[in-house]
User: What shape does this take?
Amino acid sequence: MCKRYSLFVACEYRKRWREQRAGLVTWKRYRHSLRRPLMDKLLAMATFVRVVEARSFSKAAETLSMPRSSVTTIVKNLEAHLGTALLRRSTRSLSLTEAGARYLASCQSILAEVADSESQLSATAAGPRGRVRVDMPGVIGRSIVLPRLHEFEVRFPDIELVLGLSDRPSDLIHEGIDCVIRTGSLADSGLIARPLGRLAWLTCAAPRYLKQYGEPESVAALSAHRIVNYLSNATGRPLDWRFSVDGKDMSMTLRSRFSINDTEAYVQCGLEGLGLIQVSEFAVAPYLQSGRLKEVLAQARCRPVPVSIVYPKGRATVAIRTFVDWIIEIAAADLAQ
Assistant: This one.
């Protein structure tokens, strides 16, 4: 949820809470405030969205600086107003009903449009402004984004970036992330994906490994070599090794003595001569140039992996669109198109 609306919700409800406690309004009037026109409905929508994103009434109340009972009452009154349950509640979990999932998407779209309208008015006078939270693979962040952050700051001084560099999959909705950079094919129908380019994937080894065990001359020869596997952060299982032989794509599962789930540590295993590794070109480019690693099976390189920036439909504010356009611009110089 837009940070502006989190703050707005907190301020509005603290104001009404103080009025109720001071006797300026009755509890009945406070409780039925959802019957007020548009502004109260927006407040209720924003509160509901925050509860879903936080996966907890208590955490939502904490971020909104409100009593938990008030947040609970707001959502209950909203459900009563709509005539349907939006959430399934239990002592340990909180989940959306089918109606709740549909309503959540509508709320997010409406709140984003309101925030976008305000951002456009601000941008007309002073340029884009706002907070954008982005998650991306560490190798892309270190190789493409971080070296250009100063340029972004100069061009867009009123946009605050919150960057997360990690190989783990991100949940945009529940983690409150505005957009993510992802590699590989995408299957999320509720997301907008804009292509950034393609990332080459190489099979490498350290010279001392090749001196001791020799260089594989074909994909079939890999079964006789020492392998270091990379563990998927999504499944916890080793990723298949991918190649392209005679124009045909192929993948294979290889046994290994070592498996690891961090890209930098994975590359370090290759540098230490522990075995063959398969990794993005960005992750090993400096070591290939210095000779500390050597590419093998270059004739069987797999097809480059697509890289995209992804964000939920209906939630792109001016600040988010500005960042997306900027990342597309700078990626064109570094990623194969």
Q: What stands out?
A: The chain has three domains: 3-112, 127-197+306-331, 201-303. The two ends are 33 Å apart (CA to CA). The chain has 13 helices and 14 strands. Residues 102 and 311 are 18 Å apart (CA to CA).
